[in-house]
Complement component 1 Q subcomponent-binding protein, mitochondrial (Cairina moschata), 175 residues
Amino acid sequence: VSGGWELEVHGTEAKLLRKVAGERITVTFNINNSIPPSVDEETQEDQKPDEQEPDITSTPNFVVEVVKDDTKQTLVLDCHYPEDEVGHEGEEESDIFTIREVSFQPTGEADWKDTNYTLNTDSLDWALYDHLMDFLADRGVDNAFADELIELSTALEHQEYIKFLEDLKSFVKCQ
């Protein structure tokens, strides 16, 4: 991923870390359940033999955490790829990911507190939502980043899938 991100992978969970101007930005995602459901059976039956299957891509939900050096709070933005946006190149430039929820969590806590207020963006003023998207873009989390995240997640998912199949083969063979 371009933009000076460090990658840490632990099984199916990946973290991208970056420090910018007194802030630490962490993007975390998990590849489990990140492949959207396939198209209808009918569409596949109607497909001509010479037509290629669509590429399987991983579009995981991801969490962006922003920690400022001088605060004890972390701004947490829960993001996802809406199913209808992925892979559709519209005439108008639109965001390929959306912010679902926003909250503050104590910095350094392993588990987030359910007692902290979480704002669902469905009820958020569009101007404030745009400011939050600009806030992310200023920190390198924009459409280009989201595209690269899909590529990275897809590569990690394929790698884990192959490893899983190899492990399954070994397990089933073993008697």
In short: The first strand starts at residue 6 and ends at 10.
